[in-house]
Amino acid sequence: MVWLPVFAIIGAFVTSLVISLLAWKNGVTPMRLVLVGIGVSAAMGAVVTLLIALSSESTSMTAYIWLTGSVYGADWHDVTQLFPWVAGSLGVSLYFSRRMNALELGDHTAVGLGVSLQFTRMSLLFLSVLMAAPAIAYAGAISFVGLIAPHIARRLVDRHFAVLLPTTALIGACLVMLADVCGRTLFQPLDIPAGVFVSAIGAPFFIFLLYRQRF
After folding, report:
1. CA-to-CA distance for 203 and 76, rounded, in angstroms?
2. Domain 4-212: which topology?
3. CB atoms within 10 A of CB 71
4. Cβ of 103: how many Cβ atoms within 10 Å?
5. Nearest Cα to 175, choosing from 193, 148, 215, 154?
6. CB-based contacts of 103, cutoff 8 Å, min separation 6
7. 131 and 145 Cβ atoms separated by less than 8 Å
8. Percent of the chain having pLDDT more than 70?
C-alpha cells in the first residue's frame, strides 16, 4: 500500500504523456487535449473491463468497488500516507497561481504578460496528475468531484487561484465525506459506495453546465 501512490502516479504520467503527444500539433490546445483524452480514456476503460473479465470473482468485486469509488475501511494510517502527496502537490500548485491567473485572461494576454504558454500548460497538466493519482489510488475513481468543487468554490471566494485552489480542495473533501455519510446511513444495512452519490449529484450538474453553454 505504501507504494500504491507511486505506481498510480507512474501509470497516470505515462497515460498523460501519451495524450499530450497525440494532442501535440504546434503546441497543445485545451480542445485537442480533451478530445484525445476522451479517446484514450475509452481505450483504457476497455483494457480495465478485459482485466476484470479475466479475474476471479473476488478480485472483480473489489475492482468494481474501486472503480465506483469508496472510502470504506479508510483509517488514519491512510491519511498519513496520503498527506505528503497532497500537501506537496498543493504547495507546488500555489507556486503556479499567478500564471494560472494570467491564463484566465486568454492566450494572447498571458503571452504578453510573459507566461510561457506551452510550458505552463504541460506543467499544470502533470501537476494535476501528481495531485489526482494518489487520491484515486486510495479512494478509487470518484467521478465529478473535480467538476463540481471548482464551480462551487468560484461562487464562494475570489477567483484568484491562490485562494481558489485550497477552497476547492476543502469543498471536494466535504463532498466526498457527505457522500460517504449518505452511503452509510440512508440505505442501512447496505453500505453504498460514496462514488454513487457523488455521481448522482455530478451528472445533473454536468448537464446543467452544458445547458448553460447554449446561451
Report:
1. 31
2. ABC transporter involved in vitamin B12 uptake, BtuC (1.10.3470)
3. 19
4. 20
5. 148
6. 110, 115, 117, 120, 121
7. no
8. 98
| DSSP string computed for 4-70 | HHHHHHHHHHHHHHHHHHHH-SSS--HHHHHHHHHHHHHHHHHHHHHHHHHS-HHHHHHHHHHHH--
C-alpha span between 82 and 78 (Å, rounded) = 6
Mean pLDDT across the chain:
82
**Cell 457523488 -> residue:** 198
CA distance 181 to 72: 10
Q: Using an 8 Å Cβ cutoff, are 20 and 33 in contact?
A: yes
pLDDT tens, position by position, 99-142: 887 887 777 788 887 877 778 877 888 888 888 888 888 888 88
